[in-house]
Amino acid sequence: MHESSGYFGLIVGNLTYIVVGISWLLTNIMWLRIVAVLGLCLEITYMSQQPGGPVWTTMGWDTVFITINLVQLAILVRDRLSLKLTKEERVFLAPVLARLDKAQIARMLRTGGWKTFEPGTEITREGQPVADLVLICSGRAEVMVHNSLVAHVGPGVYIGEMAFTTGRNATATVTVTETCRALALDQKKLRQLCTQDREIASAIYALVGGGLADKMNASNERLQPAADPKPL
């Protein structure tokens, strides 16, 4: 009986550390926590079968860690279930959806919401603080710098991305010319979320950085002098 119990403990002990090792390889936070809970449960079983008696200290701390992970799992499930997007919204958020899971997207969307901007509305004013990072999903707007029209923008363009990345005031005045449906995320809340979740930060800065690169290229093209006409 004692020998069979020893074999059982050996199997459970090795299985415990195999499961814990697997959890370290996972990148999806939900599956990481699920596997971690399984590994901790196995460790409690293993520690309860020790020859000298149960190791209560280890078992107690494992129970604490299990509780923490279960609470975090409940939050993840809640966030996933709270994400409700229309077909149109899914199309607009496709680049974000490809990089983040549902729980992360739900947390990101809670930093702001969907807004409708009527013609004449100023989304940003040059030299003034920028409250939101805005993704235009439909409609059009014009961009003015030093009272000069420099561009017209439409769906897929971010407004306020330079202010978001640098913390500075708006570099242009963006005025709606055709009713815009947009996702507006509070910059302060979004920055705080980015400090808490590196995957969200990576996705946001990658998307915003792409928009900045396009705008810089367009700006450089405008600044280049026109080529001199070739002599006949």
Outline of this structure?
With 232 residues, the protein is α+β, with helices and mostly antiparallel strands. The protein has helices at 2-25, 29-47, 56-82, 87-92, 94-97, 102-109, 161-166, 187-196, 198-223; strands at 112-117, 122-124, 132-145, 148-153, 158-159, 173-186. The longest helix has 27 residues, at 56-82.
Describe the protein in words.
This protein is an alpha+beta fold and 232 residues long. The protein folds into two domains: 2-82, no CATH class; 87-223, Jelly Rolls. The protein contains nine helices and six strands, in the order ααααααβββββαβαα. The chain has helices spanning 2-25, 29-47, 56-82, 87-92, 94-97, 102-109, 161-166, 187-196, 198-223, and strands spanning 112-117, 122-124, 132-145, 148-153, 158-159, 173-186. Strands 1, 2, 3, 4, 5 and 6 form a six-stranded antiparallel sheet that branches. A hairpin with a 2-residue loop joins strand 3 (132-145) and strand 4 (148-153). The chain is elongated and about 80 Å long. The chain starts with a helix and ends in a 9-residue tail after the last helix.
